[in-house]
Amino acid sequence: MAKVLDVINVHRIYESAAGYTHALRGVSLQVSRGEFLCVMGPSGSGKSTLMNILGGLDRPTSGTYKLEGLDVSELTDDELAELRASRLGFVFQSFNLLPRATVMRNVQLPLVYCDVPRSERVERAVKALHAVGLPPDYYDHRSNELSGGQMQRVAIARALVNDPALILADEPTGNLDSATSEMVMETFSKLRARGKTIVLITHDPEVCEWADRTVHIRDGKLLTDEEEHALHASERGNT
Amino acid sequence: MKVRDLAVETWSALDANRGRSALTVLGIVIGISAVIAMTALIGGINKALVGELGLSQAQLVYITVNTGKPLTYDDVDKMSQNLTDYDYMVATSMGSGEATTGTKKASANITGVKPAYFKAMATKFVQGRAFTDAEEGKGSLVVILDKNSVKTLFGDADAEVVGKTITLNNNEYSIVGVTESSGEMYAGADSVSLLMPFSTAATRVVGNQEVGTIMGFAHEGSNMESVVKKTKDYIAATYNIPESEREENMYVYSMQSMIDQVNATMGAFSLLMSAVAGVSLLVGGIGIMNMMLTNVTERIREIGLRKALGARRSDITRQFMLESVLLCVSGGLFGVLLGYLGALFLAVIAGGALMGESTRITPVVDLSTVLMATGICVFIGVLFGWYPARRAARLDPVESLHYQ
Ligand SMILES: Nc1ncnc2c1ncn2[C@@H]1O[C@H](COP(=O)(O)OP(=O)(O)OP(=O)(O)O)[C@@H](O)[C@H]1O
Ligand SMILES: [Mg+2]
User: Fold this and answer.
1) A157: Cβ below 6 Å to ligand 1?
2) In angstroms, what is the span from residue A16 Cα to ligand 1's centroid?
C-alpha cells in the first residue's frame, strides 16, 4: 500500500533560556494510505512535538519527513502553508472554533485558504458535516452554542472539508467525558472506513482500541517491536 | 485568499468589536472633519468672492482723489493716457437719492458710468441691455438695476422689469437692464444700487460734472501692487500732493488687495485647522495602532488556527491591514459628513463677519476633496496598521495555537 507518511530519523531540539530540550530523538514512522494510527505516550514524551512536525507547523532539527512523497523539511513557510491548506486536516484538543461564527462558517474556513470557489463551499461543508453526523438543525448555530462533543465533530468536519491526504488529531478526546469521547471516536472510525488516513495522538489506551495500529512514544523515541511486546506482556501481567 | 473572502473576514472582525471600533476612530473622525470643514468653507468663500466680483475684477483699481479742485472728465482722459498699465479708465459719478416704485421705497446709491464701464466690468445682464452712446450723449433718463435691487423694489428678483419706471428725485427713469450683481461688496440689505449714464447722473443727481471714483482696469496679468504704486506716484506728482497728505487725500486700492486680504485671513484659518487636523489624525492613528495591537493579542489563537488551516503570512498581514484601513476609512467618511455640517454652521458665522450681510456662503465639498480625505485615511490605516499586522503575521503557529 502507498505510504502517506514517511518519517526517517527525525530529531527536534528546543532551544530556550533554560537550555536545550531534546523532545524527539530519532523518530522513524511510516503510515499507509487508509490507515488509522494511534501514537500513545505519557505527558512530555514528545507527542505534540511530533504532531506539529507532521502537520507542517514546525520543522525537524534533523531528519527527513515526506508527505505523499513530498519532502516537507525542504519547504518554505509559504509552501508549508499551502501544504496545510491542501493536504492536511487538524483536530485539536481544545476544538479551536471561531466562537461567534456559525457552524457552517467554521467548517468553510479552510476553503478560504485553498481557493475553493464559493459556489462549491456550502456543498462541501454540508458533505463534511454529514460525514461527522451533525444534524442539519445545527448548521446555523454559533459554535459557542454547541456541546463539547458537537464542537469536536464540527472541528472534525473542518479537518475533512478540504479532502486532505492526512488528518492529524492531538488529544481530540482530552476535553470530553467518556460517553462523548466514544461518539467522537466513532466518527473517526467512520472516516477510517471511508478510506481516510488518520494519525491520532493520545495518552488514553481506550482511544487506541479504535485504531488499526498503535505506536508508543517514550522520551522522544518510538518503542521498538521488542519493547512493545515487553510492554504488552507487562500490561497483561498487571491485569 | 480572494478579495471577497478577505472582505468578509474583515467585516465580521470589525462587526464583533463595534463599540471599541467606533471609539477608536473618533480621532480620525475629528481630524477629517476639520480638513473637510476647512476646505468646504474656503471653497465656499472663494466661490462667493468670485460670484460677487467676477474673476476679471481682480484687475480692478478704485481711485479717489481729494484735491482742492475736483477732478473732471478731462483729468480722467489725461490719467488714462499717462498710466499705460490700464486697458480702460472709467469715470463714475456717485450720488444718492430715494427710489420709489408704485408701492415700494428705498434709499438708492447712484453711480453714473460711461458705456465703456459695462465692457470693462464684463457685466452679466439677466434682462435688457447696457446704455448706448446716444443715451450717454443725451443724458437720457434710463437706469440699470441689479437683481437684489429688483427684489427690494419689486418684491421678486426675477420680475420682468425692463420697460417699467422708477421715480427718483421727482424724475421718472425707465429701466433698460438688470445685472446679475452690482459688484459692490458691502451692499446694504435695505438700499438699492442703480447705474445711470454719467451725463444723466452729473446733471440730474450730483448736480455738477465732477468725477467721483475712477475705476481702472489694468491689463490682464499685471502686477497689481506696482500698478497701484505707479498710479499713486502719478497722482501725487500731477496734483502736487505732498508725501504727508497722501494717506488722507488719495485713495487708490485694487480689488486684488481686497481678495488678498480675505485669502490671508483664510490662510491663517486653514493653518489652524490643518494643525488641529494633523494632531487629531496623528493621535487617531496611534489609537488605531493601539487597538489593532490589542486585537492581535486577543486573537492570537485565531491567528494560530488560521495558519494551521493554511493561511500564509501575507494572508494574515492583509487581513489585519484591511481591518485598520477600513476602520480609518469609515471614520473618515463619517468625518466628511460631520465636517460638512460644521462648515454649514461656520459659514453662517463667517459669512456675516467676513463678507457683509448680503453675502451667503455655501460650503463646497467636491468629489476630489472626498477622495483626498479617503486617501489620507487609507494612508493612515496602512501606516499605523502595518506594525500590528506584521506582528500578527509573524506569530509562530504552534505557540499561538496554545496561547492562553
Ligand atoms: N516550545 C518549546 N520550547 C522548549 N521546550 C519545549 C517546547 N515545547 C515542548 N517542549 C518540551 O518538549 C518536550 C515534549 O513536549 P510535548 O509538548 O511534545 O509533549 P506531549 O507528549 O505532547 O505532552 P502532553 O501529553 O502533556 O501534551 C517536553 O519536555 C516539553 O517541555
Ligand atoms: Mg501535547
Assistant:
1) no
2) 12
The answer, yes or no, to whether any atom of ligand 1 lies below 6 A from the CB of A23, is yes
pLDDT, residue B296, reads: 95
Q: What is the ipTM of this complex?
A: 0.93
Q: How many domains does chain A have?
A: 1
Q: Is A30 among the domain residues?
A: no
A39, part of any domain:
yes
- Report the amino acid identity of residue A179: A
Ligand 1 touching residue A49 (CB < 6 A): yes
Q: Do A98 and B305 touch (CB under 8 A)?
A: yes
**Domain assignment of residue A67, yes or no:** no
- Tell me the residue range of the domain where A172 lies: 35-58+87-238
Residue A119 touches partner B, C-beta closer than 8 Å = no
Residues, Cβ < 5 Å to ion ligand 2 = A 48
Summarised one tens digit per residue, pLDDT across range B325-384 is 999 999 999 999 999 999 888 888 766 655 554 556 788 888 888 999 999 999 999 999
pLDDT below 50 — which residues of chain B?
Answer: 185-187, 357
Identify whether A8 is part of a domain: no
Report the CATH number at residue A101: 3.40.50.300
Is residue A79 predicted with pLDDT exceeding 90? yes
**Euclidean distance between CA atoms A166 and A4, whole angstroms:** 8
Distance from CA of B400 to the nearest CA of A (A): 11
Q: What is the pLDDT of residues A119-178, one digit of tens each?
A: 899 999 999 999 999 999 999 999 999 999 999 999 999 999 999 999 999 999 998 999
